[in-house]
Amino acid sequence: MAIVMLILMNIAVMASIYFSIFLIEMIFGIRLDPQSITGLAILAVIVGFSGSIISLLLSKWMAKMSMGVRIIETPQNEAERWLVETVAKLANKANIPMPEVGIFDGPPNAFATGPSKSNALVAVSTSLFDMMDTKEIEGVLAHEIKHIANGDMITMTLVQGVLNSLVFFISRLIANIIAPKDEEGNPNPFAYIAISFALEIVLSIFATMIAMWFSRYREYKADAGAVEIDGPEGIYYALAKLGQIPKDQIALPAEMKAFGIVGFISELFSSHPPIEKRLENIKRVARELGYNI
């Protein structure tokens, strides 16, 4: 299923790129020549934002399919009823519409996703109920609700789109300058492709570092927001418990890490800060709000 979804996503991205180029050329009469600054800039924006926007629009569907999320439409037991009621309470405190609520089988974790505040999903793993009490789970839910209230999914899409566009633009601009030219001044196509591809790889590394830095900043903000709407105890002790579990046992799949409660790579390329630093941040915010922790 994951492979099929990846293929469909790539097809959708490429189709949107070609369709956008076709519309621009047909409606505005602009021929997108990648050898001109204007043409290259427009292409870079189209290519850079297409994948990010499509991923955002399909984020809920992808999460449900890839994670096997079951949406709770009618609670089947007391735990599900409590989960839906708690999400509703926190959403009301955060002044956002009620998101969809789902559960999935897997290691203890949770995530939020969706294309907008009014079309979002909060999902928690069944194993989270096995290791945490209700106050700790409520803290986790408060963290995810604040991701939605802060518009983090949309903001990450914009950041990723800008970075993708810059990588595409700069790599091809430099390749056009340094690639060998023929007598008419046109760059050798093989050298142009090779140089731009190599530059894309290098620039993408730096772009990923920037995107992950912003993702870590979002996590600190969501933790602080959880303290504001639910107090510090829940999110603090939930993270403390998660910090005692081996990292490979609680990390979400790569496509969902940026929106989960925990996620790991090396710190520089990680979507989440180290739990120890998050705990210190929570204590600082709690003290500022008058809590004793």
UniProtKB/TrEMBL annotation:
<keyword id="KW-1003">Cell membrane</keyword>
<feature type="binding site">
    <location>
        <position position="147"/>
    </location>
    <ligand>
        <name>Zn(2+)</name>
    </ligand>
</feature>
<keyword id="KW-0479">Metal-binding</keyword>
<keyword id="KW-0472">Membrane</keyword>
<feature type="transmembrane region" description="Helical">
    <location>
        <begin position="7"/>
        <end position="30"/>
    </location>
</feature>
<dbReference type="InterPro" id="IPR022919">
    <property type="entry name" value="Pept_M48_protease_HtpX"/>
</dbReference>
<feature type="binding site">
    <location>
        <position position="143"/>
    </location>
    <ligand>
        <name>Zn(2+)</name>
    </ligand>
</feature>
<feature type="binding site">
    <location>
        <position position="219"/>
    </location>
    <ligand>
        <name>Zn(2+)</name>
    </ligand>
</feature>
<keyword id="KW-0862">Zinc</keyword>
<keyword id="KW-1133">Transmembrane helix</keyword>
<keyword id="KW-0482">Metalloprotease</keyword>
<keyword id="KW-0645">Protease</keyword>
<dbReference type="GO" id="GO:0006508">
    <property type="term" value="P:proteolysis"/>
</dbReference>
<keyword id="KW-0378">Hydrolase</keyword>
<feature type="transmembrane region" description="Helical">
    <location>
        <begin position="190"/>
        <end position="214"/>
    </location>
</feature>
<feature type="transmembrane region" description="Helical">
    <location>
        <begin position="36"/>
        <end position="58"/>
    </location>
</feature>
<comment type="similarity">
    <text>Belongs to the peptidase M48B family.</text>
</comment>
<protein>
    <recommendedName>
        <fullName>Protease HtpX homolog</fullName>
        <ecNumber>3.4.24.-</ecNumber>
    </recommendedName>
</protein>
<dbReference type="GO" id="GO:0008233">
    <property type="term" value="F:peptidase activity"/>
</dbReference>
<feature type="transmembrane region" description="Helical">
    <location>
        <begin position="153"/>
        <end position="178"/>
    </location>
</feature>
<dbReference type="Pfam" id="PF01435">
    <property type="entry name" value="Peptidase_M48"/>
</dbReference>
<dbReference type="InterPro" id="IPR050083">
    <property type="entry name" value="HtpX_protease"/>
</dbReference>
<feature type="active site">
    <location>
        <position position="144"/>
    </location>
</feature>
<feature type="domain" description="Peptidase M48">
    <location>
        <begin position="79"/>
        <end position="284"/>
    </location>
</feature>
<dbReference type="InterPro" id="IPR001915">
    <property type="entry name" value="Peptidase_M48"/>
</dbReference>
<keyword id="KW-0812">Transmembrane</keyword>
